[in-house]
Amino acid sequence: MKIKDISKFLSLVLRHEPGRIGITLDENGWTDCRELIEAAGRHGMSFNYETLVEVVHTNDKQRFSFSEDGKRIRANQGHSVTVDLSLEPQVPPEFLYHGTVAKFLDSIRGGGLHKGERHHVHLSPDLVTATKVGARRGKPVILSIRAAEISAAGQPFYVTANGVWLTDAVPPEFIDFP
Fold first, then answer.
1. Which residues lie across from 122 on neighbouring strands?
2. Which residues have C-beta within 8 Å of that of residue 43, sequence separation ≥ 6?
3. How far is CA 61 from CA 57, 65, 121, 133, in A?
4. 3-75: which CATH topology?
5. Which residue ranges does the chain devote to CATH 1.10.10.970?
6. Cα–Cα nearest to 96, from 120, 64, 119
7. Domain with CATH 3.20.170.30 in the chain
8. b vs e for 139-160, b when ≥16 Cβ sit within 10 Å of the residue's Cβ?
9. In this structure, which CATH number among 3.90.226.10, 3.30.1360.200, 3.20.20.70, 3.20.170.30 belongs to the domain 96-176?
10. Does the pTM exceed 0.85?
11. What is the pLDDT of residues 76-103, one digit of tens each?
12. What would the pLDDT profile of 49-79 be if each residue is shown by its tens digit?
């Protein structure tokens, strides 16, 4: 089984459809590693704990985390299922970035960025990451988000274990378009 395939599988079951393989996530998004591995095997995704560790530690986006004792795993963000990641509000840097593609620009100009089916809008701390995110759907367009101004207006921001910044929405007046 390829590491990339396991990573995609984990993104699906730890962020969106844990019931697909019969696992449950606790209120903070954690699930038992042993149960995950056994359930995955019953559904055609066979891997062991050592491979799971490799997936977590080599994922370029650091999408997953282990609990301190290494017995549980969760996705760091991007859930469409209800979880509380227990993140504390943080003061963001002056600018954060959002990678998208040209076909979404008119909608974003009109209504800003919205979380959609996810819990938050995802923002990148640097242009390189935002470019990679935007490139998943075609030629990337990078939007500069005046995060410090939004925060000063009272909207909370959170930062995940892998450095992704989260907020509820980004009004268009705080977006610098290219």
1. 166
2. 20, 21
3. 10, 11, 16, 10
4. Arc Repressor Mutant, subunit A (1.10.10)
5. 3-75
6. 120
7. 96-176
8. ebbbbbbbbbebbeeebbbbbb
9. 3.20.170.30
10. no
11. 888 888 888 888 999 999 999 999 999 9
12. 999 999 999 987 788 999 999 999 999 888 8
Q: Rounded CA gap, 111 and 95, in Å?
A: 19
Q: How many CB atoms lie within 10 A of CB 91?
A: 11
Which two tokens mark 25? 């996530």
Q: Residue 62 is which amino acid?
A: Q
Q: How many CB atoms lie within 10 A of CB 167?
A: 22
All residues at 6 or more sequence positions from 175 whose CB lies less than 8 Å from its CB, including other chains: 98, 108, 109, 112, 113, 143, 144, 145, 146
CB 157 within 8 A of CB 147: yes
Strand order in the sheet with 121-123: 121-123, 165-167, 158-159
Query: SS3 for 36-53, per residue?
Result: HHHHHHHCCCCCCHHHHH
Distance in Å from the first CA to the final CA of the chain? 41
